[in-house]
């Protein structure tokens, strides 16, 4: 089968490898579509992902496909289901490490619920936390929505961790796929005023189309006039970039007892200027999804998709075939892509 390999930092290739064998708790999925993660996948290719320094590795963690075979004890997948979150965690004797391995012609999903019932859902038994979010999706969820749901459910799953509730006034910094998902899903969720911050006016315009009430540049929100007019009125400020400089820029805007929310992987030694913040606030570091919340989010997303309130077309700006993977990443690197999908 085909799989996307990073043989060394800065290089990509498509390689023929063995199709994975499934065990009694697994299902085999034939991949229909994958989506590039502008952050994680790009960092893995560049050799800049924290803690990953072993190459070659098999790339990808956002995918959707059709179940073509199931193991004896599998109950929660059946042949013909559309499934998301498949990966290949072990390339065995093929000498390839796993960068999740989801950009493969065939991937494996695990029946987490059965593993849990039988006491096998532990790291000691070889169970990754990712197994919990390997799920089938309702029939009406098409490949585009299914694969983009890998991003959406991570974001919506963070709402509980971030103490977000309907009616709250929120500022989001960063209008990449994550920041825009906070805007789009936040409005569907019932957040009150949702403002967005980004350096590029073109991205701010996209955010407004997603439902953002106001769009600002970093320079605008840093002026004494803006800070005074905001009057510490934001219930929550969300860093959708993952930089301490971003957090420091919004500390003067959060209300007393409000929430400062960091989404994504931040440096190990961030520095926050507490003199800019109210003397009481909550700092939430969401460096990895809470898997149970991420899984539960799919039910809400599927309903919004069914009702026509949520469409992948709002996010997908580029489409390629898997053989064009290098062209796709070149487009990401040039900053042209909001969300890019590739078909097998």
Features of this protein?
single chain, 344 residues, Quinone Oxidoreductase, Chain A, domain 1, Rossmann fold, 2 domains, seven-stranded mixed beta sheet, six-stranded parallel beta sheet, 17 strands, ER
Mean pLDDT: 95
Q: Count the strands?
A: 17
The assigned CATH architecture of the largest domain is: Alpha-Beta Complex
Secondary-structure element order, as H and E? EEEHEEEEEHEHEHEHEHHEHEEHEHE
Distance between the termini: 11 Å
- Could you tell me the radius of gyration in angstroms? 20 Å
CATH class of the largest domain: Alpha Beta
- Any idea how many domains? 2
Which class do the helix and strand fractions yield?
Answer: alpha/beta
Characterize the largest beta sheet: strand count, sense, and whether it forms a barrel.
Answer: 7 strands, mixed
Percent in strands: 15-25%
Which geometry do the CA atoms define? globular
Q: Would you give the CATH topology of the largest domain? A: Quinone Oxidoreductase, Chain A, domain 1
Please name the fourth-level CATH homologous superfamily of the largest domain: Medium-chain alcohol dehydrogenases, catalytic domain
Percent helix, as a range, is: 25-40%
Please count the helical segments.
Answer: 10
Q: Identify low-pLDDT runs.
A: none
Cofactor: Zn(2+)
Domain Enoyl reductase (ER): 10-342
GO molecular function, one term: zinc ion binding
Keywords: Metal-binding, Oxidoreductase, Zinc
Characterization of this structure:
β13 (234-239), α8 and β14 form a beta-alpha-beta unit. Strands 3, 5, 6, 8, 9, 16 and 17 form a seven-stranded mixed sheet that branches. α3 (143-161) packs across α4 and α3 crosses α9. With 344 residues, the chain is an alpha/beta fold. 28% of the residues lie in helices and 25% in strands. The chain has two domains: 2-136 and 311-343, Medium-chain alcohol dehydrogenases, catalytic domain (Quinone Oxidoreductase, Chain A, domain 1, Alpha-Beta Complex); 153-285, Rossmann fold (3-Layer(aba) Sandwich). The longest helix is centred in the middle third of the chain and has 19 residues, at 143-161. The chain has ten helices and 17 strands.
């Amino acid at each position: 089968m085909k799989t996307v390999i990073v043989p060394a930092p800065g290089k990509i290739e498509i390689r023929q490898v063995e199709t994975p064998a499934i065990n009694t708790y697994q299902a085999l999925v034939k991949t229909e579509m994958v989506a590039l993660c502008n952050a994680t996948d790009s960092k893995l290719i560049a050799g800049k992902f924290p803690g990953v320094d072993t190459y070659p590795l098999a790339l990808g963690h956002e995918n959707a496909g059709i179940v073509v075979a199931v193991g004896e004890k599998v109950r929660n997948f059946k042949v013909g289901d559309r499934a998301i979150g498949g990966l290949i965690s072990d390339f065995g004797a093929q000498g390839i490490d796993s960068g999740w391995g989801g950009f493969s012609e065939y991937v494996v999903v695990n029946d987490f619920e059965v593993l849990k019932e039988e006491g096998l859902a532990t790291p000691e038994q070889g169970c990754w936390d990712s197994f919990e979010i390997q799920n089938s999706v309702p029939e009406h969820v098409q490949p585009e929505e299914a694969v983009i749901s890998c991003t959406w459910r991570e974001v919506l799953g963070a709402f509980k961790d971030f103490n977000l509730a309907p009616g709250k006034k929120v500022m989001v910094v960063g209008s990449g796929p994550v920041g825009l998902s906070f805007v789009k899903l936040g409005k569907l969720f019932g957040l009150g005023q949702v403002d967005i911050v980004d350096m590029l006016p073109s991205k701010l315009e996209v955010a407004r189309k997603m439902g953002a009430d106001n769009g600002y540049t970093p320079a605008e929100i840093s002026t004494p006039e803006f800070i005074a007019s905001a009057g510490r009125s934001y219930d929550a400020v969300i860093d959708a970039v993952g930089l301490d400089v971003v957090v420091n820029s919004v500390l003067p805007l959060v209300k007393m007892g409000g929430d400062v929310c960091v989404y994504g992987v931040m440096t190990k030694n961030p520095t926050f200027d507490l003199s800019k913040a109210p003397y009481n606030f909550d700092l939430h570091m969401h460096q990895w999804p809470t898997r149970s919340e991420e899984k539960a989010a799919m039910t809400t997303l599927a309903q919004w998709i069914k009702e026509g309130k949520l469409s992948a077309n709002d996010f997908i700006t580029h489409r390629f075939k898997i053989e064009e993977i290098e062209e796709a990443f070149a487009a990401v690197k040039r900053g042209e892509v909001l969300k890019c999908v590739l078909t097998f």
